[in-house]
Please model this.
Amino acid sequence: MPITFVTTSHPARSWPQGKVKSSDDLFHQAYPSDSRRSKSIIQSSFPRRLFREKQITPSSNGFVRAAFHAYSGHHHLNIRLEDVWFSILSQLNFFINAHAEELRAFFVSHEGTQELEIKDAGSINYADFGDMAYLMSRPLQENIVDPTFHTWCMSSFSTTTDSDRVVASVLMMGALQKYFSYRMTLDCGIPSVTLLGVREDWEEILNRPNRAGLTCCF
Model:
């Protein structure tokens, strides 16, 4: 159950900033330099309806800037557990990568970089890359010294969503990138299978081995 505590006596003000209308707008306004270097967004965790239903304001650092604007502009501040946990994981990420060799024995038993690969069916336009990132955390867990590090990193609070689990998986991958490289392979799937003939034909094929006494061979 959420806990609210009052920190001042003056009333809150409404949020004056405008909102973005799409994932492209969000990316461009939050990270303009990265947006200019990118061709397109392959996949977004923001469904289109969210931009209609919510007031989403771009920010290069959502948690820190939200706290800053709430304080300086007299706005209510809502904090999710993931806001705090991902900030901790992000800082841990920087520390591990800055001291990768010193910490190697704590995380892996191999030297150099080991490649991890997961495969899925689909194409670049239809594959669920969030799900693939989450799946990548499993072989990562299997190849580190302490598998419970995976469980420790994963967000598992009452506020946790599937998107949060993807973020935690990506942060874990980033923290261990000096020890592993990651490959995601998309295999083509068969869109449909057509069985020619009629149902009775296929039933006949199914029954023929039985009539010939060949059941034991199948």
